[in-house]
Specification:
The complex is a heterodimer of chains A (260) and B (112).
Chain A lengths: L2 H30 L7 H16 L2 H25 L6 H39 L2 H7 L4 H40 L3 H11 L2 H27 L7 H29 L1
Helix pairs in contact in A: 1-6, 2-6, 3-4, 3-6, 4-6, 4-7, 4-8, 4-9, 6-8, 8-9
Chain B lengths: L1 H10 L3 H14 L15 H13 L4 E6 L1 H4 L7 H9 L4 E7 L14
Parallel strand pairs in B: 1-2
Classes of the chains: A mainly alpha (260), B alpha+beta (112).
Chain lengths: 260, 112
Amino acid sequence: MSFLEKIGHFETNLSKSFTDIFFFAGIVLLRMFRRKTYSSAMRSVLVNQIYFTSVQILPVFIAVSIIFGSLLIGIVFQLLKGLGLTGFFGNVLMGLIVTELSPFFTVLLITLRSGSAINTEIAVMKVNSEIKTLETFRIDVIDYLLVPRVINGVVSLVLLSSLFSVVLMFSGILFSKIIFGISIDAYINILLNSANFSDIVIALVKCAVFGFFITLIPIRFGLRASHELTSIPIAVSGGMVNVFTAIMIIEVLSLITKLF
Amino acid sequence: MNISLIKQYHENMPMAQAHDIAITALQRLGLEHIAYKRNPSLNNEERFCVMLLRAVMVRDAIVIIDRPFKIIPHLNKINFFLDTLKKIEDFYINCHIYDYKWMSERYGDLCH
């Protein structure tokens, strides 16, 4: 195969993969807005999924948020003081840390924990013919298995990212007092003045889009597993690589959106 | 849990109600202790009973058992299957068992 053929082959596969993911995303999105989808069985799965993703992770997530958030805030504030940019700390806190780093940090954590778990779970179900059994009983796999996981991704990402932002802002109170000698009232005042409503909306939409794709892509790749056990690691690694690519694409798109 | 899923999905039955029906059905077969076990931890008899209960959860169920001795190979007689079916006969309308002709001796008088 010549070099040009290799490029062509790569491009063809890439466009096929994109088309497949977006077509699948369209189907799942339509089902999300259909009343019939929300059966008793689906609601049970949704509650369980939210519990596994958002509630079980809380102790670890809060601990990591406090440690990582305090470290980040401390370094950034110290740097701003060193550069003589104390007046911009509110803009940096809201514009960079709350609306950019919080969603990014949260999506990485949830992808590593839940994205990989969902990918493996679906691939194992495919290998064990559990999905075929569900279809035998006329249980719609998209409604019962996929939609709850995707909704859970959206809800969890938005909530956990907001929680991370809140933890960061609380860390900010402590560090602004130590580093800049700013009182709580002044700190809150600076934060409110620096908060840009459109940035917060973009951050929340970005979280929702992150949540949608970090669950949808692992599911899609999990469903691609064959009936052989050896197809599980292939499906999982393929899914996770594509999830990280999607995270980067969404991040870039959100930055472009902010420019306009 | 997989047994109650059928009622939850097709009849939109609340989880607690569907769960009670599944537990009652398992109790009739003396298997309530396996309610929260997963498939790999069940023995052949238990797995057959779960498959059967899952099948009869469908409304107006007509049960078709294809080669039962393939599911529980160590059994020599059909009695276990018949006893199990008898215990839950009000859950289904009709039941058909299919198997190869050379297995007829395991079915005794039932074979036709």
